[in-house]
Amino acid sequence: MDGSLVNWEDAKVHVLSHALHYGSGVFEGIRAYETKVGTAVFRLEDHIRRLFRSAHLYHIKVPFSPEDLIAGVKDTIRANGLTHCYIRPLVYLGYGEMGLNPFDVPVNVSIATWPWGAYLGEDALEAGVRVKVSSWKRNDQNSLPPSAKATGQYINSILAKMEAIHAGYDEAIMLNQRGEIADGSGENVFMVRGRQLLTPPLSAGCLGGITRDSVLTLATDLGYDVREENLVRSDLYHADEAFFTGTAAEVTPIREVDDRTVGEGVRGPVTKEIQQSFFAAARGEIEKYRHWLDPVG
Ligand code: PMP
User: Fold this and answer.
1) How far apart are CA 141 and CA 136, in angstroms?
2) At a CB cut-off of 8 Å and minimum separation 6, what does 229 contact?
3) How many angstroms does the Cα of residue 208 sit away from the middle of ligand 1?
4) Which residues does ligand 1 sit against, CB inside 6 Å?
5) How far is the CA of 98 from the centre of ligand 1 (A)?
6) What is the 147 CA–ligand 1 centroid distance (Å)?
7) Which of 86, 153, 188 to mutate to test the pocket of ligand 1 (most atoms within 8 A of CB)?
8) Most buried of the four, 147, 148, 216, 257, by CB within 10 Å?
């Protein structure tokens, strides 16, 4: 916290912290994997760059340099003795002035690391998940810009996630105000149509996912015809395959949308190939993508 290693039970904030009341924080979700070159963080620099972009949007001045935060992530992993983990950097408005004007409020930074398995369940990676298109629309570009990962924005995702769980599904997909697919509550959405791999463009209001970007590269290299295209819910019903991507969800097959099976209702061959390629890259098994790995040392 703020440059020091703090014991888990002492990692506390004041109840009058600005971010707790107004959602005025930005964060990242990152993973470290056990790789051929030891424990390594997947696309760490890209995540830290996105953190600074999110902060810029909200006029939050991060009181550390990107290099400091990169070192902080590695220090925290080492201090916890973790070989693979999830990593949560958070830049938040802390304890100071109350009220909406944030400019005199101190900015605090924390980095937490812990072991976190498959986000949507261990068997989800193979069996796939059941998904509901949410009645909640994704945050609009001109209200809470979806290109930023701000803590307060996630109350929108939580509405969608709760609705999906209450209705007996595993995850939600959110549409934008125009009715096009944006993303999952915490994942990007892909679908397969023959040799085509389709995903919504950033202008649809999805987050610029780092896993999404990795999969776009991997799939292009595997010879797929990769397209960023506006998609609607029925495109999912008619897709041959569909899957989520995300740091937490990694590459998770979608086997059903709104009670309709997607393709054969199982993890399809394209999803499987891309999933295997993603995990191989994350574990340092493909030389070409080694530059995505930042060894913890
Ligand atoms: N969309 C949303 C809304 C998310 O919260 C996330 C998780 N950060 C993603 C997509 C996937 O992004 P990434 O692959 O960078 O984790």
Assistant:
1) 15
2) 198, 199, 200, 201
3) 7
4) 29, 149, 157, 183, 186-188, 206-207, 209-212, 245-247
5) 30
6) 10
7) 188
8) 257
pLDDT given for residue 291 in this prediction = 97
Q: What is the pLDDT of residue 37?
A: 87
Quote the ligand 1 centre to 249 CA distance (angstroms): 9
The pairing of beta strand 129-133 with beta strand 171-175? parallel
Which one of 41, 147, 207, 213 would you pick to mutate in the ligand 1 pocket, going by the greatest count of ligand atoms within 8 A of its CB? 207
**Beta bridge mates, 190:** 243
**Mean pLDDT, 10 residues at a time, over the chain (297 residues)?**
97 98 98 95 98 98 98 98 98 96 97 94 95 98 96 98 98 98 98 97 98 98 98 98 98 98 97 98 97 97
Atom of ligand 1 nearest to the CA of 146: 3
> Closest ligand 1 atom to the C-alpha of 212?
14
Domains of the chain and CATH, by start: 8-114 (3.30.470.10), 124-282 (3.20.10.10)
The catalytic site residues sit at 149
